[in-house]
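Q: What residues go here?
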């Protein structure tokens, strides 16, 4: 029972972040590209990210805290953790770094472009965000696969 709370928090945070990227990349993006011209599409994405990114920050904090709690409870310290835990940690840190770059650079440029109605610059920023989300989604799905199956290898 001691591990139930950090496991639940960890899983919910991962589902929120990775599931949100899955929805945004594979569902919303193709529909928005098909239905909306750049002014509406870029404004939509700016507002979607404004609502989603606080959840990502919360997920990151929760994942780091609950992951540390789980490692301490299950292994005592990271040095005693199973190899799959080390792989998840490294991939998770890479995901956080990618998200931080996305948030502080292309997302900032997207918002500035939308405010200035500079649709070509906004399109470039959104394209970079799309590429970074594709990378993070792939990494996130890999982390989930490792989390579910890693201890069996």
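A:
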């Amino acid at each position: 029972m001691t591990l139930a709370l950090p496991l639940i928090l960890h899983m919910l945070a991962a589902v929120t972040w990775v599931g949100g990227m899955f929805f945004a990349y594979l569902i919303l993006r193709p529909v928005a590209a098909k239905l909306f011209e750049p002014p509406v599409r870029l404004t939509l994405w700016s507002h979607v990210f404004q609502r989603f990114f606080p959840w990502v920050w919360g997920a990151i904090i929760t994942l780091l805290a609950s992951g540390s709690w789980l490692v301490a409870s299950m292994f005592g310290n990271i040095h005693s953790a199973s190899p799959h835990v080390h792989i998840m940690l490294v991939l998770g840190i890479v995901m956080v770094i990618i998200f931080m770059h996305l948030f502080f650079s292309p997302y900032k440029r997207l918002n500035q472009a939308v405010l200035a109605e500079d649709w070509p610059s906004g399109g470039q920023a959104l394209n970079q965000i799309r590429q970074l989300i594709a990378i993070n989604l792939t990494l996130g799905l890999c982390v989930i696969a490792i989390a579910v199956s890693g201890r069996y290898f």
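A: Context that may help when evaluating the design: Residues 4-152 form one domain. The chain has a mean pLDDT of 97.
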